[in-house]
Every structure is written in C-alpha cells, then in structure tokens.
Amino acid sequence: MYQISSPDISNMQFSAEVVSKSDDNDEEIGQTSISADINASGNELLREEEIDELLMHKKRVKTFDRIGPPIDAKSLENLSPKHSNILPSVSISETCSGSAGFARNEIRSEKSRIFKNETSRDDGQLVVEVEERILMEKNYTGSSSDEEESNEPAEQRLLGVPGKKKKKKGRTVPISVNPIYFVAILLFVFLGLFFWKKTWSKRTVSNFQLLKNNGTAPFAPTTILISLDGFRADFLDKGITPRLGSMVKEGVSPPYMRPSFPSVTFPNHYTLVTGLYPESHGIVGNRFWDKELKEEFIHTGPSALDPKWWGGEPIWVTAEKQGMKTAIHMWPGSEADIMDVKPTYLDNYDGKLPLSQKADRIMELLDMPGYVNDDTTLTRPQLIAAYVPNVDADCHLYGPESNEVLATIHEVDSMLEKVFVGLEKRNLTNIVNVVIVSDHGMATTDVSRMIQLEDLIDLDQVEHIDGWPLYGLHPKGEINKMYGRLSTLAEENGNFKVYLKDSNMPERFHFSNNHRIAPLWVVPNTGWAIATKKELDVKESIQRGIQYHPRGLHGYDNEHPLMRAIFIAKGPFFKQVPNSILEPFQNIEVYNIICDTLGLEPLPNNGTMRLPLVPTHQNGSEDNKSMKFNPELVSASMTLTQSIPSSEMPTSSGSMSSSTEIPKISATELHETAAVPEASKSPEIDTSWMSEKQKELLEWLRANADDMKSWLKDIAAGN
After folding, report:
1. Which pLDDT belongs to residue 205?
2. Are residues 669 and 709 in the same domain?
3. Which residues are the active-site residues?
4. Model pTM greater than 0.70?
5. How far apart are CA 555 and CA 440, in angstroms?
6. Under a CB-based contact definition with an 8 Å cutoff, are residues 257 and 586 in contact?
7. Does residue 527 contact residue 445 with C-beta atoms inside 8 Å?
8. Which of 96, 132, 295, 355 has its CA 20 to 30 A from that of 537?
9. DSSP β-bridge partners for residue 500
10. What is the DSSP secondary-structure string of 7-72?
11. pLDDT band at residue 615 using 50, 70 and 90 as cut-offs
C-alpha cells in the first residue's frame, strides 16, 4: 500500500474531460486504467480512509454551524476501487467537537450505506464530481488546514493548469494574557509616555531647572521686576540717573515703551503682569462702574481686593502654579487672592516706606536659602516684583517738571544703584536679570487748561461717571442725543474728543470689548483736565489765581510722547551690544519676556514678543548726549524740596484733591503663604540627569526591539 500525497491535483498529468470521454483517445484511457492494477485489498482500505475523511469533514461543518452546502454522500455512490488512487486526500487540521462515540457510529452507518448502494459509474465523471463537491464545501464553510488548499476549479486542477495561489489565512487564536504581563505592558506604556513628555516638554521649562553657582550657593535663574510708577521716558535724559543710564548702555532697552489705554496706574500695572489689554483683564480704570455686578471699583478701597474684579492670570500666579516661588512687594493687585493663589512672600502697600528699605528688602529675599529638603521653610524666590510709587506721587503733587520730582528721580536711581551693588557683592550680576519698567508718563496741568464738566453736560442725566482725567459717562437716557451735543462742543472747543464705545472708539486703544467700559467717553487733550464744580470752579480759580491740583496728570492717549513709559533690562538674558536699542513696543509684551527669563510657560495673552530680544541699531553720541550725570542740578533740586513743606502747597477743595493721595492699604507686613505643594521644589533641583536617562532608554528600546516583538507575540499566543 502506498500513501496518497496532499491534493496538488495540478501535478497530475491527466484530464477530467479525457476521463469522461474514454472512447476518444487510447492514450488517455490507458492513463486512467493504471488504477486497475492496484491490489484489491489496498484499494478497499484506501477507499475507506478517503470516505472516513470526507465524513469527518461533513461532521465538522455540522458541529461548528458554518453556512454552506452539506456533503452529499450520493456523490460517492458507485465509487470503483480502481479509481481510489486518484481520489484526493483531505488534510484535516481541526478536530471535531461533540461525542466521539456518536460520531463514530454515524460514520460507520454512512460508510455501510455507501458500500451497499455502490454501483458502476463513469469513473472520470465521478472523480470530477467528488472533487468539485470537496472544493465547494471548503469555499462555503471557510475550513482551513495547516497547509491551505487551493480554491481552483476541479477541472483546472485535474488538467494540471496552474491557478493563482491565495495567501495562507491566519489562524484565529484565543488570547489569554497573564495578569502579570498585562501590568508589565501598562507599566511599559506609562514609562514611555513619561519620558516622551519629558523629551517633548514645553520649550522654556528646562531653562529654570539649570542651576548656576555664584561661588557660595546654587541659584536658579532669577528675575527682579521693578516698576517706577509715573517715570516718563524722557526722565532718562535729565542727566540725573547714572545707574539707569548704565543699564541702557550695557543692557537692552527701546527708546520708550507704550502704555495701554487708558494710561493710568492700575490698568497698566495689571497689563504688565498679564500681557492683556485692560479690555481683556477687566481692570479698565482706577475707578469704574460694573453694570452687571452693579458695583463700583475704586482702586483705593477695600473692595478692590475682591478677586472678582481681576481677570486673567498675573505672573505670580503663573509662577506659583508651575512650581516657582515668588515675592511681590506692593504691586497693584497682588493683595487680591486672584485665582485663590497667593505669592509665597507678599508685602502689602505702604506709601511711607523709604526707598532704601525697598532695596534692603530685595536683598533680603535674595539672601534666603535655596531649596534643600522638605524641612526648609523659607526658601529663595525666583521672581521678585517690586512697586515704587514715589515718582508718580511727587509728579501729582509738584508737577513732572519740578525740581522736587528731579530729586525724587535721583533718589529712585540711587535705590537701584544699591540693588546693583548688592548683586555685584553677591556675584549675581550674571545670574539675576533686572528689568525696570514704568506704567505711564506724566503731563503738567494748569488752571488755564481746564474744562468745566457742567458746561458740557447736565450731570442729572448721568447715572455714573468713570475715570479721571478722562470721563466715562453712563447716561440715564438716550446716549446718541448726549453724544451729538458733546460732539458739537468738541468741535467748537477743540481741546477734547468724544467717543462712543461701540462706534468710533479708536481701534488702537483696544478699549471697547468689555461691559465695564462706559458707553460714552470724553477724553481731554494731553495736558488738559476736566473737573466738576465740586472739585474745582474753573472761572473762580482763574480769577483768584488758585492753582489746580494735581499738578501732574496722566490717563491720556497712550501714544502721546508725554505718556511714554520705560523698559530697561540687564542680565544673562539681556546681553546685547553696548548701547543697542529695540524698536518701541507696548507693555503687553512684558509678561511673555519675564516668563521666558524664568522658564515659565505663559498663558495666552495679547503679547507676541519672546526672547531673545533683537536690537535694531546702536545708540549714537547724539542720543546719549544728555545721559551725563549733573550733580549740581540734583543738589539744587534736593535743597528746594526740603525747603517747601507739602502742607504749604495750595490745593483746591473737593474730591479731586483727595483722589491724588497715595493709597494707604496697610502697614508693611511680610505674608508668608503656604508654598505650592511638591511643585515648589522643582526649580531648585538640577534634573539635567533626566536627559541622559532618556537617551539610555531610547538606545535600550532600539537594541531590544526584536526581543520585545517576540515577547509580545508569545503573550498574544497565550504562551
């Protein structure tokens, strides 16, 4: 007995057509007659095996409930033993389910029926019919074997005509994952995501993690931001600010910085630390009415500390949320618990604090220890923001061109000199960035440049009045009617302009997209002022020679030269060519710049500038000719300041004079708030080792990629 090979029928060299037509060709008849020589007992055994396999195939189809035509046993009737050698064997790779005994009994019954009814038939036709039936069963039931059988037509296979081979179908293997493997996969994915996040972290985060050493202690990048309220840009040309002049030559600064509109203190200080226009952060004036809250914001009142007024995110909140400690010294808005985040160190406003003590306070903060461990309670802040109100206060009191103001400007410059000397003694000039800014400029007032508000409108027709020296009006009645009258008077007078918030407000003001902005505005020309009779009777004051106070004012068009502010920066992030300058920019850019020096990721804002700041050209001698120090002028102005008591200065009665007083909120107190948990440690820890670990991990993954693939395949196979 010999073994029937796997059913590669295409290798058989005879035709089904010839088999069915044996009378046409003697040679082909001879080929089909070779089976007659096979031993009878062997033929019978082979025939039984083939029938067994076909019946088992039929049983498998029934067992798995697959759709397809059942095997018709009648196709095997009259099977002649002499043709059993050409009956293709079927390779069965899957075992049948169900009762084995029942299956065997059913197979025996089927075999007996076939043998009993066997009759003589045309051999070739029988073979073709059986072959087609087998192929049909395979195609309908989707049965598979370890060696996928061809789906070619039976006639093609029997004739030896090659057909297209189909790709082997994959076996469906149930996956059984060990829980340990599952946990390992999750851990691997987690580690991969962790290192990926570190590798692709935000672009500035790594800056503050790199520590520098001043020879005594490690320092993370640190920035000192100092605001000189009311410091007009051309004050630098007075020749009385040697320290600021040195910063201009050695650091980076534009000729001036534009404030935001309106050019008053609170809106602009909050713009400096948020990067938002006043219309965006909501502090639209020092005093304004909120029609939705039905409340009035007054910058000197206790209600101004309610966080509901303050939109946006100030830089100390940005820093604290990103794990950086901050120290805020009297900055407007810092005492409000904005977003429920306090600076780590907070100094409340104190208008009487001497300038020298401000410098001492900054050095005290720098002398704090860096982070060592969790037991360290007082650690050094990386952002120090300080507010200096002295120049603004004296400009209001004496006027910006007065000798008193010149003396104050020199005193402020001396305070800055003390800060820089302290940095030099601590070897921190190449570690700490110092940025000096101001919020607006200042214009001189005079009673001859006054407008009586009652001459313009009937105050009984106005529900609320915002602002000063510009006036925002909330009319009780028809707005357009009042606007029409004011527009006519503005054309006749020529010293003020009238704007409707929703109509002709200049786009460059960015002062219309907030419900807190009054619908109608009267904006005096720079140097002019508007007052109610309660504040000052203009005609009477001119007749009696009473001077209007305040002597200096701001709040005008933010692009007027007298409203220009300053931006001067020096430090490791501001090393430029000596005397280099930038093109002027608006103060919405400061927030991004300070964030970049500290490695903070700023929140979306109106600014677009980022570090490094690229200077446009160098200052020439013509630009710097007035920067030389003039000690005689300073000495004379200081003598004059000391000789005139402020109580002897004539002032007008009414609410206007009271509004010029320096805000007094509370005595100086150091508030140490709870540090931001966990995250506050990170700026003081050198994590540069992580980049090396990331490289090692990536190299290990590349080297073991094939092993990991095999491991995952084993898991999928249930091994």
Report:
1. 40
2. no
3. 265
4. no
5. 8
6. yes
7. yes
8. 295
9. 520
10. --GGG----HHHHH-TTS-HHHHHHHGGGGGS-HHHHHHHHHHHHHHHHHHHHHHHHTT--SPPP-
11. confident
Q: Which domain holds residue 198?
A: 179-203+687-716
Q: What is the pLDDT of residue 595?
A: 98
Say how far apart CA 24 and CA 668 lie, in whole Å.
122
Residue 131 to residues 54, 87, 120, 312: CA-CA distances in angstroms? Answer: 11, 8, 18, 81
Q: What is the CATH number of the domain that holds 314?
A: 3.40.720.10
Q: Please indicate, yes or no, if residue 356 is contained in any of the structural domains.
A: yes
SS3 label, residue 294: coil
Is residue 218 reached through a cis peptide bond, with omega within 30 degrees of 0 on the bond before it? no
Assigned domain for 515 exists: no
Helix (H) or strand (E) holding 499: strand 496-500
> Residue 399, Cβ neighbours under 10 Å: how many?
22
Looking at the fold, whether 575 and 674 belong to one and the same domain comes out as yes
CA angle 625, 627, 630 (to 5 degrees): 110
For residues 230 and 113, membership in a common domain is answered with: no
- Return the structure tokens found at 312: 């946006």
For residue 519, the one-letter residue type is P
Per-position DSSP letters for 670-683, written without gaps between them:
EEEPPPPTTGGGGG
- CA torsion sign, 452 to 453 to 458 to 464? negative
For residue 213, give both structure tokens.
């050493």
Which amino acid type is present at position 581?
I
Residues whose CB falls within 8 Å of the CB of residue 184, separated by 6 or more in sequence, listed in order:
none
Which of 178-192, 507-521, 649-663 has the highest average model confidence (pLDDT)? 507-521
DSSP bridge pairs for 475:
462
Strand segments, DSSP code E, in 124-276 are 212-213, 218-219, 222-228, 257-258
Residue 484 burial (CB count, 10 A): 12
Distances (CA, A) of 315 to 144, 223, 271, 284, 603: 68, 12, 10, 19, 9
Decide if 524 is inside a domain.
Answer: no
**Paired tokens of 498:** 């009238």
Strand partners, 346: 328, 671
Q: Within this chain, do residues 197 and 152 fall inside the same structural domain, yes or no? A: no
Residue with tokens 């019978």: 44
| 194: Cα within 13 Å, side-chain hemisphere | 10
- By three-state DSSP, how is residue 218 classified? strand
Do residue 324 and residue 422 come from a single domain?
yes
Q: Are residues 196 and 263 located together in one domain of the fold?
A: no
pLDDT tens digits, one per residue of 60-98: 545 444 444 444 444 444 444 444 443 444 443 444 344
Query: What is the length of the chain?
Result: 719
Is there a contact between 269 and 314 (Cβ–Cβ < 8 Å)? no
Q: Quick one: CA dihedral 40, 43, 45, 47, positive or negative?
A: negative
Q: What is the pLDDT of residue 508?
A: 98
153 and 10 Cβ atoms separated by less than 8 Å: no
**492 belongs to a structural domain:** no
